[in-house]
Amino acid sequence: MGEVQERRPEPEEGQGQGRGRGQEEAPGGGNGGRFHPAYFGMYLALALILSYVETLIPFYVGIPGVKLGLTNLVIVLMLYDRGASQALVLSCARVLLAGFLFGNLSSILYSMAGGVLSLLCMAGARRTGKFSVYGVSMVGGVTHNIGQILVAMAVVESVGIAFYLPVLLVSGVVTGALIGVAAAEVRKRLPRA
Amino acid sequence: MKKGDWIWLAAVLGAAAVLFAIYMAYQGRGSAAVAVVTVDGEEFGVYPLDQDAQIWINGTNELVIRGHEADMVSADCPDQVCVNQKPASRNGETIVCLPNKVVVEIRGGQEAEVDQVAN
Ligand SMILES: [Zn+2]
């Protein structure tokens, strides 16, 4: 599997890849690209579709509300494309909308904890420069599950739930790796909008 | 994959293995019996017997864990069979509330002994 280019060299922007669309990097550079409402909306729609797909997949480890975290794919892409702050907004918007559509208040709580914690950890991991997309995504998968289990422990007021931690750690690293592979493949094919 | 990726992967799998080993060790000692509560086939929660607790199961049944025993102390079901069942504490013992589809099962810890059959 090829190494994924994850630094985003500024000059590459100028080459334009013959895509026609002019691309301005956010003034001040650094943290991510410009905010395009349409682009953001498309990502949000994708994330919601994946949230729906997730409700169809039976993944039950014994803790009510704990999810697989497929939507992390969209969040990872957003993180790499637009930076941490837009990915954070996307993640929160996704959690709220998906919660109202497919879930309830407690599922919002679980997803919010998992989503926000994993995003912060992924952004941090990415910033260190020591991880590729695969690693960043695995960090996300694992911390996503840790966030959820922490909420579950608080909600059920039982530490016994930590019993599931090993399973959740492994499943987090596996889904994270799969999502990392998917994200790397998508990024190879996706022209930077 | 970068070096950091591998380190993370190894660290997480290692942590999972260590935790798993710790749980198994606890179970082997028999002190880590848990009450597994399921509602309508779906797991509702897992509660260690060595920790006193009062659990409201879906607002229909009240399970109390006290003195290494799980006891259904109240329920809104018409038959009250579950409330009249004796407290469960040993591996495999169950308390069932059919009307509310609530099952409490003890897992881990000491095996249920012959005297239970005799009773
Ligand atoms: Zn009953």
Give me the secondary-structure topology:
The complex is a heterodimer of chains A (193) and B (119).
Chain A: H1 10-15, H2 37-56, H3 72-82, H4 84-102, H5 105-128, H6 133-156, H7 165-189
Helix pairs in contact in A: 2-3, 2-4, 3-4, 3-5, 3-7, 4-5, 5-6, 6-7
Chain B: H1 3-29, E1 34-39, E2 42-48, E3 53-57, E4 61-66, E5 69-75, H2 81-84, E6 94-97, E7 102-107, H3 114-118
Antiparallel strand pairs in B: 1-2, 1-7, 3-4, 4-5, 6-7
The structure holds zinc ion.
What is shown here, in short?
The complex is a heterodimer of chains A (193) and B (119). By secondary structure, chain A is mostly helical.
Describe, in plain words, how this protein is organized in 3D.
The complex is a heterodimer of chains A (193) and B (119). With 193 residues, chain A is mainly alpha-helical. Chain A has a single domain, classed as Arp2/3 complex 21 kDa subunit ARPC3. Helix content of chain A is 67%, strand content 0%. In chain A, helix 2 packs antiparallel against helix 3 (72-82) and helix 3 (72-82) runs antiparallel to helix 4. Chain B is of the alpha+beta class and 119 residues long. Chain B is built from three helices and seven strands. Chain B has helices spanning 3-29, 81-84, 114-118, and strands at 34-39, 42-48, 53-57, 61-66, 69-75, 94-97, 102-107. In chain B, the strands form two sheets. Chain B has a four-stranded antiparallel beta sheet with strand order 2-1-7-6. In chain B, a hairpin with a 2-residue loop joins strand 4 and strand 5. The longest helix of chain B is centred in the first third of the chain and has 27 residues, at 3-29. The A-B interface holds A 1, 3, 60, 62-64, 125, 128, 130-132, 134-135, 138-139, 142, 156-161, 163, 165-167, 169-170, 172-173, 177 and B 1-5, 8-9, 12-13, 15-17, 19-20, 23, 34, 42-48, 51, 53. Zinc ion (ZN) binds at residues 75, 77, 79-82, 97, 99-100 of chain B.
